[in-house]
Predict the structure.
Amino acid sequence: MKIKRFAFFLPQFYEIEENNKWWGNGFTEWVNVKNARLLYNGHKQPKEPLCGYYNLLDKQTIIRQTKLLHKYNIDGMAYYHYYFRGKKLLEKPAENLLKWKDIDQKFFFCWANHPWIKSQNGKKIILQEQEYGDQKDWEAHFKYLLPFFKDKRYEKRNNKPVFMIFKSIFEEKDEMMKFFDKKCKENGFAGIFVINTCSSFEEYKRIKKYNEGMSYEQFYFFREPSCGQNITNSAVRKIDRKIRTIVNTKTHFGMAPPVYSGDKILKKTIKNAVYGNDVYHGIFFEWDNTPRHKKLGYVITPISKESFKKYYSTIKNEEYTFINAWNEWAEGMMLEGTKEYGYKYLEWLKEVDDEEK
């Protein structure tokens, strides 16, 4: 069975009213990308897109991205879905894709159900709170999702729409997912297929325990190799001190972000990662969120092709893998081409796929 590969897709590259209000007129993620600066010797910023600074509302941009997916054997996109008890943010790219039936792009939603927060003068300001509401709110959410679920391009597993949850533990989750499962069955599906996200072994165990006794099917995955510690995404604001004992760190006189070895992370991951029928693993190639967080961010150096192939050989028989990411430009994770590397990472993925044939 060929592994299905989906890349996370950030719909942040067009203007919305809220971002103009919160971050300034004309804001998109490209503002952070263009304003990135070198923070230490050997730092490689800013990153520049090979295709130019696009707008995700442009249909030709989506067509171009879809052609790349097909050329390099990527199965589809995992669109970040920002939904806050009826309030939607950055929803237009997915809505446009639903409308543009002529674009052959498979996709599903990753519900990014965390609040939006802005740090200012050392304080955290909540820009958009996440509330889960009650069954009336879940009904409205499901009605919004249903046209996507019914689209033939939306990923299903055993006739169950795939629905990924970014923040996998919240009080209303069990009842909410039971409701979604019931509504899916009422609309001709076999239920809903929930994928929980986690980024460490400790988090995996917490989610596993939390989900005990839940009546619907549950699967889990590590967002990307993390050698048993929170090192990406969930650790953007706070890096676990234990990581410093695992991988080499350069502090650059305390004036720049820590830098971790991508190859050493992969080596530890292969040794320590959790494997099993209930785990889907992620792939990452590098990381640098300093365009967004400046010296409060951190860097993971690009992995080598040899390390990638060795890691990929440990997950190639899994049903899914999730690549972080297609276009996380302000976090230094881009499958789409850069002026620095071209389409190198896409070429690696296609090469290991071709070798399996």
